[in-house]
Amino acid sequence: MSQKKKKKRLRALVLALVLAPCPTERGGGGPPLRLFIEEELAPYGGEEGISNQPIYLAAKGVVFDVTSGKEFYGRGAPCNALTGKDSTRGVAKMSLDPADLTHDTTGLTAKELESLDDVFTEVYKAKYPLVGYTAWRILNEDGSPNLDLKPEDQPHFDIKDEF
């Protein structure tokens, strides 16, 4: 691993530790939250064929373990395309089009954003454990922490409802 990549991961880890809630805020424990870069999230897409590999899906920069929903998200399942990446746009549009499998919400309609919020709250937050966050949400493009980030100022994000 290159020195630059090690520094980037170290900065990300420090920022994740600073932003991570204490265990009591997450319902009394569980594994620590993790910060994922795209390449680290990809192996959790349910396609590896490893029976004990968890399946992760990210929406709105929040990573959920959707393994208990294998019938929807596992290999060959209808929504498998959403896993192993941040598929916020796809969730908002109810789309599995590869062009929509991104975190970019630019140009979404008010109805699509409302749908995203509903699915995020009523499906992912209600049914699946939170395991971490995507790096794009809290880091600058060069990998340095975005010290100006205020999660509560992000569009369609309410930190108090996330945990």
Structural write-up:
- The chain has one domain (32-151): Roll (Flavocytochrome B2, Chain A, domain 1), CATH 3.10.120.10.
- It contains five helices and four strands, in the order αβαββαααβ.
- It has helices spanning 3-19, 38-41, 70-73, 88-93, 110-127; strands at 34-36, 56-59, 62-65, 130-134.
- It has a four-stranded mixed beta sheet with strand order 1-4-3-2.
- The longest helix is centred in the C-terminal third of the chain and has 18 residues, at 110-127.
- It is globular and about 40 Å long.
CATH level-two architecture: Roll
Distance between the termini: 33 Å
Mean pLDDT: 78
What CATH calls the topology is: Flavocytochrome B2, Chain A, domain 1
The largest sheet, given as strand count, sense and whether it forms a barrel, is: 4 strands, mixed
Low-pLDDT runs of 5+ residues are 10-28, 152-157
Kindly give the count of domains: 1
Strand order within the widest beta sheet: 1-4-3-2
How many whole angstroms does the radius of gyration measure? 15 Å
Element-level helix/strand string: HEHEEHHHE
CATH class: Alpha Beta
Which structural class matches the secondary elements? alpha+beta
Record field, number of beta strands: 4
Family: Belongs to the cytochrome b5 family. MAPR subfamily.
Domain Cytochrome b5 heme-binding: 36-135
Keywords: Endoplasmic reticulum, Heme, Iron, Metal-binding, Signal
Subcellular location: Endoplasmic reticulum
